[in-house]
Every structure is written in C-alpha cells, then in structure tokens.
C-alpha cells in the first residue's frame, strides 16, 4: 500500500511519487471518483519533453472528458501501458496500478506542490 503522506499533490488533483529524479504521476482517488468510470486514457509518448502546467493527455469517463496536466517539467521516461489497455485501473487503484506516467525531472521540480494535509484541506474545502 502506498503511503499517501509521502506523496506530493497538485491543485489539479494529481499525485506525484518522486524518487531518484523520477516522478511517478497519477490522479488522486478524489479525482477518479469525481470522473466516474474511466473508459479511455491518452498519454504522451516516451521521450516527450513536457512543461509544467501544459496538457499532456486526456482521461475520458462515462461522465466527462478531462485533461491531464503536467505537474512538473521534464521528459516522459515511461507510460503505464496497463492503464491504456484497461483504463478502469485509474478507478480501481489510483495510487497503485493506476499510475499514468513517469517523468525525469530536475531537483527543484517539486517546489510548490502540496503535501497530503494541504491536499485534503483543498478537497474538503
């Protein structure tokens, strides 16, 4: 089980697990619940340079279509093919098997991200 307190979060309801200069990125359980049943995920290609705050993908559910924003700048080093093949993983395990992309980042890329307490306050406010 992922330690949710060890993750970083964005106001756009994404989580990041940063280790050794690589950020594993997904959407939070709060976002997955709001989206409803996810039926399609479009992710950037490996090798894509991304800028923080830009749209890098799309998540489609039975309720709506949402854009996936890059929470940090860097280079996409891996995408979760399992989620592309089975988008329901985003709902079933948003912090485990439902991660979306891995990005090689600069050391200061996590500046300005939220901790768990700040994210919970945001979603309960």
From TrEMBL:
InterPro entries from the UniProt entry: 2-oxoA_DH_lipoyl-BS (IPR003016), Biotin_lipoyl (IPR000089), GCV_H (IPR002930), GCV_H/Fam206 (IPR033753), GCV_H_sub (IPR017453), Single_hybrid_motif (IPR011053)
Modified residues (N6-lipoyllysine): 63
Keywords: Lipoyl
Signal listed as a keyword: no
Essential cofactor(s): (R)-lipoate
Domain of life: Bacteria
Domain Lipoyl-binding: from-to ranges: 22-104
Cofactor binding note: Binds 1 lipoyl cofactor covalently.
Quaternary structure annotation from Swiss-Prot or TrEMBL: The glycine cleavage system is composed of four proteins: P, T, L and H.
Task of the protein: The glycine cleavage system catalyzes the degradation of glycine. The H protein shuttles the methylamine group of glycine from the P protein to the T protein.
Family: Belongs to the GcvH family.
Protein name: Glycine cleavage system H protein
